[in-house]
Write a structure and sequence with these properties.
heterodimer; A: 112 residues; mainly alpha; Arc Repressor Mutant, subunit A; 58% helix; 9% strand; elongated; B: alpha+beta; 4 domains; 6-stranded mixed β-barrel
């Protein structure tokens, strides 16, 4: 299946970037994930995942302007590329197909 | 405000991924603040450190950026540098010409001097055994002091060869004189040497005819050089069967020609025309076998060690040192070793005992120093002009920097301009060298050619070009590339420099440096020429003018009186006198005993056998007593004869001229009386003071020279007359004569040569310095065009403007004069130390040199300043 493969965490990160829009950079992404999923996420993990996604072409990035805080260091802002959006769509579609293929009684058993 | 752990920060900075350094550090810092607020400092620290450690990428390399940084040595950039350099060169023709001309002059000096030094240093190197050959010399203790002599006893060579296993072979070289005849052909070789058969295996002088294995085993054998063979047998000597021909020496000894040797190379300290075996000398001259006579050069070749390397000569030299007393008890004279490489340049032996070709390392040192000085001055010119022209280039630098040029690429650009200039200058200097070589050869008495075929020569050329372009280019390159673009573009160079005048001070000190060097040379020239004039004008104590010296050879030695009588009767001859020397550099000295001598009180006295006309012929004067007289029989007696001494001798023996009369002296074992005291006269070069001298009148002993005083203006007519008298008395020997004044002058040839060389070089240095000055004035005048215009409008005269522009530079030349005078004084005092009779360093010498330098500098600057001063102010003030 020569198709996009997104790991679970990758999917989360990619989605978060999409959610944050113009404000997506290392810190906000990490905090957003922590907030939304409630799990403690290491910054290094997020950073590595962002790098990997950028390599795969799902994310693009550019440096922002100089900042007053952070010791004057610039931020790297991420945005989802067209390929990234398609990958998210595909993941979502697969999920929805799977959900819709679920027999109703099973669904009930799961408390849905 | 809290900070994350410093070590983690540092670590991340050092080992994090270089591409994401910035944002990662920033993000972590932001998160850290957040963590501190939400969960406290301790946990924040912990999380920060953990994240930092996880983000270390120690092996990561930065990804190449899409835009590579400008590559300064990219072919396109290089082409651009050359193009810009060429444009600049063409646009500023005057500056370029000054720069290239100055550099070319400097480099041509260096080239010629390098050739000279190379030539001097390659003496004797043609010998295959060059590294292993030494000459044995003696350090003799004489009453007057310690003297190094290059001659050793005849038996020394065989004894050393027998006693020291280190010695592979030895050869003796002695000097001889004589007339060689065959039928009607006769020659008197100038370089007539006596050598051992091993001469040909120790040195590398190949034979053209003859076999080195068989020659010189008999006593009566001769070897000619090619040149002698041609002189003796004619141009087609090669076609004749020469070996075995019999040749007569001095009309009584028959020799066989056993070989013809190739002419010794010019770069050989041994030069020979005819060679004769030492065996002959052993049979005919008992002194050659005695230990107490020093007449021969002893050369030895040390045996290489097992590995074929030269052995350490110091151990052998230590053994050799005291060897002489093994052969002759009580002889404490030490023997020294002189390597073949030192013989030509480092030989300073007393009593003229080194009769080989010689030079002096001092020449080389002076030459090298002077060559470097000229080059340095030329380099300074370049630097000065380049920095002075900075204003023209400042805008260019500003624009280049604004569009992204880095400093390194600007440095490369300016260096490549320097390289271009230097390369052009090198081409010009090669041309100049070719043109000047004949003049230089004449000056240095050499026959050198530019070795175009030698790879090392081209390496030197390339090396010199590279070094000079670095020297000239480095400072301007860094200076020009240091401009801040905003400053130079906004306010222009004037605004940029108004803050600090460093560039100007730097230039001025360089100009002072140039003139210090050239004025020092000029002062030295004045002093040297003054000393040369002094040497020539010093009263020698006798009249050297119209004094002719004819050498008495062969039969004439016995027939001297007849020759003298015949010559005296010639119409052009005023006086003639028979002597044993020609009055030039006499050092035939001995010791005497005298009345009232305390034991062990000894001194060397120079001696001469003359006749009664000597005092009249030479124009010497008597201080006390009377001259010799042919009528008084006791004067000429070989026992109980009479003597004349000079004032110094009288003083040395403790007498006044008056009290010396009648005193008894014992000379060469025979007693005699002092009958007169001659006024001191110089019989050695003026390097040394007058020493004791003794004259005797012994017609029975040999005379070697006839001194002839001709009447003024009759030299030309008298010479042929003397020659015909000579021919009549001795048809065999060709006449050899000399003019005493010329021969005396020849003693100072090396000083004259040095004077000439320094003169040329000081002219050159002043020329090159002024070339730079010319450029600088032109530049200043150009820079101050507006100022001059305004001054003129307000009524300034041409003179005041010229003064305004010249003042600055004259000040520099004056400062240079003040610095140069003590330097030259010190150097010249040291040089004058080598003369016992010398002129003193006087105030007018630096003044004269300074005046010349100032006049030339003034001339140089005035050309530009007058041009600027007479320009119409309307033109300079019209625009802007």
């Amino acid at each position: 299946m020569k198709r996009t493969f997104l790991g679970e965490f990758e999917e989360v990160v990619l989605l978060t970037v999409a959610v944050l829009g113009d404000e997506a950079y290392g810190v906000t992404i990490t905090q957003e994930i922590e907030q939304r999923t409630g799990r403690s996420v290491g910054f290094s993990t997020v950073h590595t995942t962002l790098q990997r996604l950028a390599e795969k072409g799902y994310l693009s990035s550019e440096m922002g302007g100089a900042t007053a805080e952070r010791g004057g260091r610039r931020k790297r802002f991420f945005s989802v590329t067209a390929a990234g959006r398609r990958a998210l769509q595909e993941v979502k579609q697969v999920r929805e197909e799977l959900w819709s293929a679920l027999p109703p009684q099973t669904l009930q058993l799961m408390g849905g | 405000m809290t900070h994350p752990p410093r070590w983690a920060q540092k670590l991340l900075e050092a080992l994090g991924h270089p591409d994401t350094q910035e944002e990662v550090q920033g993000d972590l810092l932001e998160l850290y603040d957040h963590w501190v607020q939400t969960m406290g400092k301790r946990r924040a620290n912990w999380r920060y450190s953990l994240a930092a450690l996880k983000l270390l990428r120690p092996l990561a390399k930065p990804k190449p950026q899409t835009y590579s940084p400008p590559f300064t040595s990219h072919p396109d950039m290089l082409r651009n540098y050359v193009k810009i350099a060429t444009r600049n060169l063409v646009r500023n023709r005057v500056y370029s010409a000054i720069n290239i001309g100055g550099l070319a002059l400097g480099m041509v000096c260096c080239l010629l001097i390098a050739l000279y030094v190379y030539d001097e240093l390659s003496y004797d190197r043609f010998n295959a055994n060059f590294a292993h050959i030494y000459r044995v010399t003696e350090r003799q203790t004489q009453p007057e002091g310690i003297f190094d002599v290059a001659v050793t006893p005849g038996p020394l060579a065989p004894a050393l060869e027998k006693d020291f296993p280190e010695v592979q072979r030895t050869t003796r070289v002695g000097q001889w004189h004589g007339l060689l005849t065959k039928g009607r052909r006769a020659i008197e070789p100038e370089q007539f040497l006596i050598v051992d058969p091993s001469f040909f295996s120790l040195f590398s002088y190949p034979l053209i005819m003859g076999d080195t294995n068989t020659i010189f085993h008999g006593p009566n054998e001769l070897i000619f050089s090619e040149a002698t063979a041609e002189r003796f047998f004619g141009a087609d000597w090669r076609l004749k069967n020469l070996l075995g021909q019999s040749i007569t020496l001095n009309k009584d000894q028959t020799f066989t020609l056993v070989g013809v040797a190739k002419n010794p190379p010019t770069q050989s300290h041994i030069q020979f025309d005819v060679l004769m075996p030492f065996k002959w000398l052993e049979r005919n001259d008992e002194w050659s076998m005695k230990w107490n006579s020093n007449s021969y050069h002893t050369y030895l070749q040390l045996r290489p060690d097992v590995a074929g390397k030269a052995i350490d000569p110091t151990a052998f030299a230590d053994k050799l040192r005291g060897q002489l007393k093994q052969y002759q008890s009580g002889n404490e004279t030490p023997l020294l070793l002189q390597p073949l490489s030192d013989i030509y340049l480092y030989s300073k032996f007393a009593f003229g005992t080194d009769y080989g070709k010689r030079s002096d390392i001092t020449y080389i040192n002076i030459f090298v120093a002077v060559g470097l000085i000229v080059l340095l001055i030329a380099v300074i010119n370049f630097i000065n002009l380049a920095t002075a022209r900075a204003s023209q280039r400042a805008k260019e630098v500003g624009v280049r920097k604004s569009v992204g040029a880095q400093r390194s690429s600007l440095v490369t650009q300016f260096l490549s301009e320097a390289l271009l200039m230097t390369t052009l200058a090198m081409l010009v200097s090669l041309l100049l060298a070719e043109l000047l070589l004949p003049v230089f050869n004449n000056l240095a008495e050499k026959s050198m050619a530019i070795p175009y075929r030698m790879p090392a020569f081209w390496l030197v050329i390339i090396g010199l070009t590279a070094v000079v372009s670095l020297l000239t280019g480095l400072y301007p390159a860094f200076f020009l590339s240091s401009f801040r673009p905003v400053a130079v573009l906004k306010t222009g160079i004037a605004g940029y420099f108004s803050s600090g005048q460093t560039g100007r001070n730097f230039r001025q000190s360089l100009v002072v440096g140039q003139f210090v060097l050239s004025i020092s040379l000029a002062i030295s020239t004045v002093v040297i020429y003054r000393q040369l004039a002094y040497l020539q004008s010093t009263k020698l104590g006798f009249d050297k003018s119209h004094l002719l010296n004819v050498r008495l050879k062969g039969d004439l030695k016995q027939n001297a009186l007849r020759f003298k009588t015949d010559v005296s009767q010639l119409p052009g001859v005023a006086q003639a006198s028979m002597t044993t020397s020609n009055l030039v550099d006499m050092n035939n000295s001995t010791t005497i005993e005298w009345e009232g001598q305390t034991p062990k009180d000894e001194f060397l006295i120079t001696q001469m056998n003359v006749d009664a006309d000597f005092i009249r012929t030479t124009g010497m004067s008597m201080v006390a007593g009377r001259n010799f007289s042919a009528q008084i029989t006791s004067d000429t007696l070989s026992k109980l004869g009479t003597y004349l001494i000079n004032e110094t001798a009288a003083k040395r023996m403790g007498w006044t001229p008056a009290s010396a009369l009648g005193k008894k002296v014992k000379f060469w074992g025979t007693d005699g009386t002092v009958i007169g005291v001659v006024k001191d006269f110089h019989f050695r070069p003026l390097h040394v003071s007058i020493e004791p001298f003794i004259l005797r009148f012994r017609p029975k002993e040999f005379y070697f020279d006839l001194l002839v005083k001709t009447k003024p203006g009759m030299v030309a007519s008298t010479l042929p007359a003397i020659t015909s008298v000579y021919k009549k008395l001795d048809p065999n020997y060709p006449i050899s004569y000399g003019f005493v004044d010329q021969d005396l002058d020849r003693q100072y040839r090396s000083e004259q040569r040095i004077g000439q060389i320094i003169l040329y070089f000081s002219i050159l240095t002043i020329l090159v310095s002024c070339l730079g000055l010319f450029g600088l004035t032109a530049f200043t005048a150009e820079q101050r065009t507006k100022e001059i215009g305004i001054r003129k409008v307000l009524g300034a005269s041409v003179v005041s403007i010229v003064a305004l522009l010249s003042k600055d530079f004259l000040k520099l030349v004056l400062i240079a004069l003040i610095i140069a005078s003590p330097i030259a004084w010190y150097a010249m005092n040291r040089w004058l130390q080598s003369f016992a009779y010398k002129t003193s360093f006087e105030w007018w010498m630096p003044a004269l040199a300074g005046l010349v330098a100032i006049c030339i500098a003034l001339l140089t600057t005035s050309f530009q300043s007058i041009k600027a001063a007479i320009a119409n102010p309307v033109k300079s003030l019209r625009n802007e």
